[in-house]
Design goal:
Blueprint: H1 4-21, H2 29-34, H3 38-53, H4 67-89, H5 91-113, H6 121-148, E1 154-158, E2 161-167, H7 184-202, H8 207-214, H9 225-250, H10 260-285
Antiparallel strand pairs: 1-2
């Protein structure tokens, strides 16, 4: 009763919900208090990307393409930078910023690089521009209102003293977890830089799939999921090995713990939600 176009729209809706929610567990109190390393957190996401990809074989034949490794190379570093950005500048600002950049880069790849048809290009450009402006405005609004609204002072009377005492409001500080020791200015610079990198580098995550399709490979859409999961895990393991060796041999520092007790639930939720969003995008592309 529904044609392929409507299934595509439903897949996009699923991707929006999943991608918009995967970062929430990163801000959980237990994760922040445990100072979980961003690469360790990303490892849980990569693990679930691989595990959930096997489900595809219940209704699709086995297929693998090495293009998935390139996909993992785009996703894993971008995923790490997303975790850093969320910890430093908050979920709404970070995700709004990298989403705006993702929109621009994805539109460029689709229209310019892969020559995907657009019925009315000026309308398409206008729509992308308005969407970017809306997303950026929504993301930056908390910081704007915070600057414009001066802290109010309340007056409290002391029963033992007739003088009125000005009470300064207590500043509400969102704990940034592993980056708590950084000066606020440097933390913001790191957060914004990480969000920009996430959107720029992660904006190419669908390129390997498109190359596989253009090259005449039978891999397309949902068939690419397992290849991507394997590629993500290969890249993730390689980065962990390099990171751990650098910490021990170069900086003489202890390697971070995987903190299974803390990360079992939030890491699984983030990984499954992101994987659900990725599957929805692959289904849409099919």
């Amino acid at each position: 009763w529904m044609n392929e176009v409507w299934w595509g729209y439903l897949a996009v809706l699923g991707a929006i919900i999943a991608f918009g929610s995967f970062g929430v567990p990163i801000k959980s109190k237990k994760v922040r208090e445990a100072n979980v390393d961003p690469l360790i957190y990303q490892s849980y996401k990569s693990f679930w990307a691989l595990v959930t990809s096997v489900i595809v074989f219940t209704y699709r034949p086995f297929y693998y393409t090495p293009w998935g490794i390139l996909g993992g190379l785009f996703w894993v570093p971008a995923g790490i930078s997303a975790i850093i950005a969320i910890n430093c500048i908050g979920l709404s600002v970070a995700q709004g910023l990298w989403s705006a950049i993702l929109i621009i880069i994805s539109f460029f790849y689709g229209v310019v690089v892969f020559q995907e048809p657009v019925k009315v290009l000026p309308f398409g450009l206008s729509g992308v521009s308005l969407l970017v402006i809306g997303v950026v405005g929504m993301a930056l609004s908390p910081a704007i209102f915070e600057k414009k609204s001066p802290p109010s002072k309340s007056i409290q009377s002391d029963p033992s003293n007739e003088e009125q005492i000005l009470i300064e409001p207590t500043e509400i500080v969102v704990q940034p977890g592993i980056f708590a020791s950084m000066p606020p200015t440097k933390r913001k610079i790191l957060g914004y830089s990480a969000a920009v990198f996430c959107g720029t580098w992660g904006g190419s995550i669908m390129v390997p799939l498109k190359i596989a399709e253009k090259s005449g490979s039978t891999t397309s859409g949902i068939n690419y999921v397992f290849s991507f999961g394997v590629g993500a895990m290969i890249v993730n393991v390689f980065m962990i090995v390099v990171y751990f060796l650098a910490l021990r041999l170069v900086f003489d520092r202890p390697v971070p713990s995987f903190q299974l007790r803390v990360m079992a639930v939030p890491g699984s939720i983030s990984g499954i939600l992101w994987s659900l969003g990725e599957r929805s995008l692959k289904l849409k592309s099919s």
